[in-house]
From TrEMBL:
Similarity comment: family membership: Belongs to the PanB family.
Residues given in the record as Mg(2+) binding sites: D43, D82, E113
Annotated cofactor note: Binds 1 Mg(2+) ion per subunit.
Assembly and interaction partners: Homodecamer; pentamer of dimers.
GO molecular function, one term: methyltransferase activity
Ligand binding (3-methyl-2-oxobutanoate): D43, S44, D82, K111
Record gene name: panB
Protein name, as recorded: 3-methyl-2-oxobutanoate hydroxymethyltransferase
Cofactor(s), names only, from the UniProt record: Mg(2+)
Pathway this chain belongs to: Cofactor biosynthesis; (R)-pantothenate biosynthesis; (R)-pantoate from 3-methyl-2-oxobutanoate: step 1/2
Length: 264
């Protein structure tokens, strides 16, 4: 299977939907790699894996650790790594941290949450040879400042359209639009030359991304309206662990077939 590149993604924009999924480790990344087009090592791992209420406390080192694990299993999909909160707040800091992530993880691109105010940073990274996916709309890294996880595009549709255009002009290679009214996300996609991936932003973006632990039913703390659960993972795991516990307690496991024996 050919490796997906930025050129593949631009070609798909006009012709077919782009499928993106998060992964946080090699085990699951290996399962997803030849099925999806793009894998995102998202900072959502701080919530589903880290057990935190927000993404804000994730460190750069933790992100690099997870991204390196994912990279070992990814041979086909285009690999994007999230830049954690605070890691790209000036041109100098963004260059230092993004170069570190790019070199250590071997990813294809990084993702930065932020609108037009990040344009100079996107230009500097692009000039340094690093492809950037800009993340606009609902930006979880700003949830504390914004008073929660709020749907976007109700009162700020024009600002979002402006963000998308300014970031494209600044050198962004892809856009991710999160938690945005579907009509606004549609307009952003139609006005943009970039591949636009949506999450909770309707059906008309160029592609979709979901958090793997949401779509496979492992994350039970809350379920956003936009998530479709394709597996009841948590229930399946619980059933199997209950069965394991029952068999250990009853002596049914391990049986003789699971023992090492002297040969001959
Ligand atoms: O961190 C994440 O998983 C994200 C989602 C939008 C997919 O950024």
């Amino acid at each position: 299977m050919d490796k997906i590149t930025i050129n593949t993604l631009f070609a798909k924009k006009a012709n077919e939907k782009i499928v993106m999924l998060t992964a946080y480790d090699a085990l699951f990344a290996r399962l997803f790699d030849d099925i999806v087009d793009m894998i995102l090592v998202g900072d959502s791992l701080n919530m589903s894996f880290g057990g935190n209420d927000e993404t804000i406390s994730l460190s750069l080192e933790a992100m690099i650790y997870h991204a390196c694990a994912v990279k070992k299993a990814v041979k086909h999909a285009y690999l994007v790594v999230d830049m954690p909160f605070g890691s790209c707040v000036s041109v100098d800091l963004a260059l230092k941290n993004a170069i570190k992530v790019y070199q250590k993880t071997g990813c294809d691109a990084i993702k930065i949450e932020g609108g037009a105010e990040f344009a100079p940073i996107i230009t500097a990274l692009n000039n340094a040879g690093i492809s950037v996916m800009s993340h606009i709309g609902l930006k979880p890294q700003y949830s504390r400042q914004m008073g929660g996880f709020k749907v976007q595009g109700i009162n700020n549709a024009q600002a979002l359209l402006d963000d998308a255009k300014i970031l494209e002009d600044a050198g962004a290679k892809m856009l991710l639009v999160e938690g945005t009214i579907a009509q606004v996300a549609t307009q952003i996609t139609q006005n943009s030359n970039l591949p636009v991936i949506g999450i909770g932003s309707g059906a008309n973006t160029d592609g979709q991304v979901l958090v793997w632990s949401d779509m496979l039913g492992f994350f039970e703390n809350f379920k956003p309206k936009f998530v479709k659960q394709f597996l009841n993972g948590a229930d399946l795991v619980r059933q199997s662990v209950n069965e394991y516990a029952k068999q250990v307690r009853s002596g049914e496991f391990p049986s003789s077939q699971h023992e090492y024996k002297f040969q001959g």
